[in-house]
Amino acid sequence: MxxxxxxxxxxxxxxxxxxxxxxxxxxxxxxxxQIRGDSVCGIxxxxxxxxxxxxxRAILDASSEPWRAIGRVNFASTQIRSHCTGTLISENxxxxxxxxxxxxxRKSWIPPSSLRFAAGYERGGAVAVSSVxxxxxxPFHNRESREFRSVAAKDWAILVxxxxxxxxxxxxxxxxxxxxxVANGTISLAGYAGLxxxxxxxxxxxxxxxxxxxxxxxxxxxxxxxxxxxxxxFVIENGKIRIIAVLSAIAVSGQGLFNIAVPVSTxxxxxx
Length: 272
Hints:
Blueprint: E1 7-10, H1 25-32, H2 49-55, E2 58-59, E3 70-76, E4 81-88, E5 93-96, E6 102-103, E7 108-109, E8 115-119, E9 128-137, E10 157-161, H3 166-169, E11 173-174, H4 178-184, E12 188-191, E13 201-203, E14 210-212, E15 217-220, E16 232-237, E17 240-253, E18 256-263
Parallel strand pairs: 11-17
Antiparallel strand pairs: 1-17, 2-13, 3-4, 3-8, 4-5, 5-10, 6-7, 8-9, 9-10, 12-13, 12-16, 14-15, 15-18, 16-17, 17-18
């Protein structure tokens, strides 16, 4: 059984180094020591088998349907610039990862006013852009705390946009039958990986997948890295993205390296 305490890396982009927080640095180091050094691709370590998988991802036309529902969640301050991936699931709501909204350097939650969502982002342009009015997360997260609690099953967030840009871009849907979709569809992931942050790229090498209902997670083996946090894991049905889960972390078990996502069934209906 997977031990969630052995998450070794959250996919924050830019200067956020999630595995380095004091509360789990020893566990992260012990877990990381059990895998090959070139297995995980990083912004400053752009070589090895992990990065080979990122480079093999096909570049998508982010301005076309259905891909323009996916975009970058951008954060910028005087000291930090970072991005994650997010997906429109309605006219004004974006699904992403909760850890993308925590400033690990300052140990505080990022105010919504400091966030922008750029749908269909590509090389500095976007199909549509909106500021963020507010965001919703699992009540497990304490917005007054100066520490981020890294429980993968709780690592989802919904951004409520100021503008209904989904009217222009279209939006994805959350799967109402994820196990059926996994059994009958082709699982893949699309995100803004740190090696190629200016383009949306498509990972189709997701390998063996499984739901771990007791732990509230979905496991897969897609090639992912920093910047892909919050990316959708999905199937395509009738030309539309059906999201199975939202990407959270890389982890290691006795079976090797894999990634962890939060099933969309975890997200309450009232915040969707």
